[in-house]
From TrEMBL:
Signal peptide: none annotated. It comes from Bifidobacterium breve DSM 20213 = JCM 1192. It is found in: Cytoplasm. Specifically methylates guanosine-37 in various tRNAs. SUPFAM superfamilies: alpha/beta knot. The lineage of its organism: Bacteria, Bacillati, Actinomycetota, Actinomycetes, Bifidobacteriales. Residues 81-127 are annotated as: Disordered. This is tRNA (guanine-N(1)-)-methyltransferase.
């Protein structure tokens, strides 16, 4: 899997050379490149942001710099960002491009990559192992839908992921809109209901969730099968214990020492259901009834 990350702090991603992610890169399973957005600026100050149109606090990331950067990393032909005079509609801007700049007008055609996109954008569970052969462009955004294990599973089959990290008050909304209009698979995700200073940490979180699901990434692939949030009946995981059987007067539940696999599985399943009902009732409410077995209903 090829991974490009664009950020004004590319050094953030040096940690990707450590641990399992580092090993996966050494094995050639992953190729991660962090790029500095300022490399695509042309002014002396290398500025990437500007004040919000319509007013408000903070700064917004400019579309022109992102446009040049993403065109290059996606292998799309460069568009010319001519600035219309105030009051001129976007349509006449396109006309100006066509008459004044035949090269960029011609490129507008070839820039289009037609990727089939399903009606609701999310594949059925059965399609999750399908290769995503076209690049996926991902923007972390605290105002976007939540990133879930389902998204991680789907994206673990992608060939090329490109992350664009916003800073300040965010990025100009036309950036994702434009790449969608060019047929690119564009996603925006939040990692939780809190606000971070920028997308870098969110990208690190998403990348770890995605890459560990890649075939060959984990030493023991069984360890990802029984985890929380996986499968049809996404439940929190049961508690785990190791030896000794008693530690500081606290004993491991007896049934786990019984050697009876049927009983152990039942105990763990009941515990997972009880913990989920207590801690995350929303997950129980969202549970597909078909994911419950007969014994679940008795308890
Ligand atoms: Cl994806 N970005 C930022 N800046 N803050 C967040 C987030 C993303 N997800 C939760 N908070």
């Amino acid at each position: 899997m090829k991974i490009d990350i664009v950020s004004v702090f590319p050094e953030y991603f040096e940690v990707m050379n450590l641990s399992l992610m580092g090993k996966a890169q050494a094995k050639g399973l992953l190729e991660i490149k962090a790029h500095n957005l300022r490399d695509w600026t042309h002014d002396v100050h290398h500025s990437v942001d500007d004040t919000p149109v319509g007013g408000g606090a903070g700064m917004v990331m400019k579309p022109e710099v992102w446009g040049e950067c993403l065109d290059e990393l996606l292998g799309l032909s460069q568009q010319s960002d001519s600035v219309p005079a105030p009051g001129i509609a976007a349509d006449s801007d396109a006309d100006t491009n066509q008459s004044d700049d035949p090269v960029s007008a011609a490129n507008t055609q070839s820039a289009s990559v037609n990727v089939p996109v399903s009606s609701d954008g999310s594949p059925a569970e059965s399609d999750m192992s399908a290769q995503l052969s076209a690049p996926v462009l991902i923007f972390p955004n605290p105002s976007a839908p939540l990133f879930t294990q389902r998204d991680a599973t789907e994206l673990s089959h992608a060939k090329h992921l490109l992350f664009g990290c916003g800073r300040y008050e965010g990025y100009d909304a036309r950036i994702p809109d434009y790449y969608r209009s060019q047929g690119i698979d564009v996603r925006e995700y939040s990692i939780g209901d809190y606000v971070l200073n920028g997308g870098e940490v969110a990208v690190s979180v998403m990348l770890e969730a995605i890459t560990r699901l890649m075939p060959g990434f984990m030493g023991n692939p069984d360890s990802i099968v029984e985890e929380s949030y996986t499968g049809e009946g996404a439940l929190l995981e049961h508690h785990q214990y190791t030896k000794p059987a008693v530690w500081r007067d606290i004993a491991v539940p007896n049934v786990l020492l019984s050697g009876d696999h049927g009983k152990v599985n039942r105990y763990r399943r009941d515990e997972a259901l009880a913990r989920t009902a207590e801690i995350r009732p929303d997950l129980i409410a969202a549970l597909d009834c078909k994911a419950l077995d007969k014994a679940d209903r008795k308890t």
